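During the reporting period the student researcher (J.K.) took over the structure-prediction task from the postdoctoral fellow and processed the backlog of single-chain submissions. One of the processed entries is reproduced below for the supervisory committee.
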Amino acid sequence: MSFKYTLRGTGIGLVAAGAVIAGIQYMGITEADLETGAQASELNIEEALALVEDHTEYFVIPENKYNEITNTLAQTELELEALIEEREAEAAEEDTSEEADEETPAVVNQTIFSIEAGMNSKDIAAELKVLEIIEDEREFERYLLDQEVDRYLRTGRYRLDSGMDFQEIVTVLTN
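J.K. obtained the following structure tokens:
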């Protein structure tokens, strides 16, 4: 076992040494640089400008033009923030108007529902769908099975409305 760990340790050491050497090569540091500790030379302003102007993706602008651009950017950002706040306020107004619409009572279908002897949960769900008490008969049937109340449904007549949720309907049908 110890030979296995020794071999593994040696391999990890070789990989680490290789990574260090590759890093030095990638950075372009030469052996002479390492020995002398040479630093990159500083450029004067004319050399820096010439170097920047040689590249087409860069350009040099005077300080006053830079300040003008910066001020224009700041104004544009303020205008953008104002527009965003305005849009959020409009959206909030729309939400409140939608909530007001939602608060308006929806049409509720009320009915007397009968469970006859021999009806199973699928029959009951289908009948409730026809009477528009529920919207999805499969979902109601799954609810009955998940809650394990399908076997407790009783025959009889029940007053139901479309405003009831599944739990309320089951409570009525099992009492």
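The committee noted the following: Strands lie at 110-115, 156-161.
J.K. will present the remaining backlog at the next meeting.
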